[in-house]
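Dataset card, provenance and construction

Sequences and ligand SMILES were collected as paired inputs. For each pair, a complete structure of the chain with the small molecule in place was predicted and serialized as structure tokens. The example below shows a pair involving zinc ion. Curators did not alter the output after generation; any descriptive sentences attached to a record were derived from the structure itself.
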Amino acid sequence: MKFLVLGALFAVAYAKHEEYIGWKSYYVGVSTDDQVKALAPLVAEYELDFISHPTLSREGLVLVKPHYQAAFIQDAEAAGISYRIHADDVKSALDYDDQLIAAQKRTTVARNGGRQLPYDNYQELDVIDDYLDYIGEKYPDVATVVSPAKSFEGHPIKYVKISTTNFTDDSKPVIFIDGGIHAREWISPPTVTWAIHKLVENITESDLLDRFDWILLPVVNPDGYKFSHTNNRFWRKTRSTNSNPLSQICPGVDGNRNYDFVWNTVGASINPCTEIYAGPSAFSEIETRVVRDILHENLARTALYLTMHSFGSMILYPWGHDGSLSQNALGLHTVGVAMANAIHSKALPNFPNYVVGNSALVINYYIAGSSEDYAHYIGVPLSYTYELPGFSSTGNGFHLDPRYIDQVVRETWEGIVVGARRAGDLFTNLNV
Ligand SMILES: *[C@@H]1O[C@H](CO)[C@@H](O)[C@H](O)[C@H]1NC(C)=O
Ligand SMILES: *[C@@H]1O[C@H](CO)[C@@H](O)[C@H](O)[C@H]1NC(C)=O
Ligand SMILES: [Zn+2]
């Protein structure tokens, strides 16, 4: 009997990540505008999936399917685009990641007396949801859990409102942080739950509680997040289907192309089978509508919006759709640099420095319908996308080694602290 059970477990282990057999990932470097221009058509032609976008000074990382690898390499060489192998066998790199996650789980569960915490490992959706409920029950005076809607597949979309005045003091600026819109970016939700921890359970910056009201939404896209755990590690989109026949074969919308600002005009697709499908219409997704409604509900006093993505070690600000500067560009840049410096002061030496700049210009890639642009467009003065630190460059695994999650959440918190304080100063000045 025992052997049978073991056999079944192995069968499951072997079946994992099989869809990525033969896939490879490459570091890709572009150093001229001509190379940037040459790369763009290859993305569609070879269905390239960028896990991290290259900047002119830093390599990106791209997933390439088996049948496109030879042609991709040939075209890259012809255009002078540099490339080198990152994972020669993506499936085994993912298997290795799973071992690291299992080992991390053994360590943390032992350390926490059997409890799993949402910021000490890459966790299933239940662990994150349970943590939010726990916070709401244990700290009812400051934390309120809100579940305004269910996802396409029926999972509650949950966020926490944190306030010493129950959101009744209109003079307080609001800070809104979301994560997990892109399902596979697993380092994102832990940075948001760590912020909850630091505002409720382990308060070392009490001014942040007194001065601000907080809204923290760790997993905008629970369906996709769950699917990236159970089925397809590189799942990025939501899981919705619509009346487009292709959407039955290729479910899901790219949430960060679904916002109603210059929707579907650039860096997005109307083809449901692409990773950047903008959806049948702006705000077609309940998940993005939840974020929209939070933004509008508190718009008059929302000073800072952060949306957590990975990876790339970047802090990016509007306008991402055309690379132009907003009227508030100076504030956006100054506060962005202050956040990056704060992170840098706590970063590990082997992590790349944060790059701060205009979304489109830093990654040479214009996108329409992002939450960062939308929030700024409707009036949030400071709106940023964080591209958190990513993969380990040491070989074997694919994603950031889970032992670095603790480091990333702590250093990211330093950025949030400085961003909040600077936003508070700005907001107060605007209203005198
Ligand atoms: C906060 O306000 C809401 C109504 O907006 C109310 O239902 C809730 O009980 C209040 N919570 C506390 C802790 O006062
Ligand atoms: C709070 O955080 C500080 C700094 O990391 C740590 O030294 C302390 O043990 C923590 N306290 C609790 C109750 O977790
Ligand atoms: Zn993302």
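Derived descriptions for this record:
Residues 1-11 have pLDDT under 50 and may be disordered.
The chain has two domains: 13-88, 122-430.
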